[in-house]
Request: fold
Amino acid sequence: MAYNGSTKASSLANPPVLVAGGLGGGADLHIASGSTLYINNDYGASTAGTYKAGQGFGQRLWMWHTTEMTSAPWDSAYFTDAGPLGMRPGDVIMMVRQGTTLGTSQYLSIGVIGNVSTSGAAYVSTQSILTSS
Reply:
């Protein structure tokens, strides 16, 4: 199943929704007490870089509900409109995945946005899955 992001017709669109922002100490925290904030947020940049100082490291929570039961959401650049939506590296995304027929398995998957490309696509770098059937 293809991802239907925010650019699809309103009857088809199903982008992740921001449910909490600015968790903890707020945006732009430094990692491991370094002086440079190492993130991979290249959205809107003309070329990819290894870090961008001061562009903020996540700490926001997103929710997405889908019938996608494959591993596709964990594939490279599945969320094609993450940059325009405001997703940043380090953001947490919770995915509620449910089958299309009654009685099929349900999954709660939790992942971390690891990179946002120059075109705005997000890469979910890790996941944890809780299941119910």
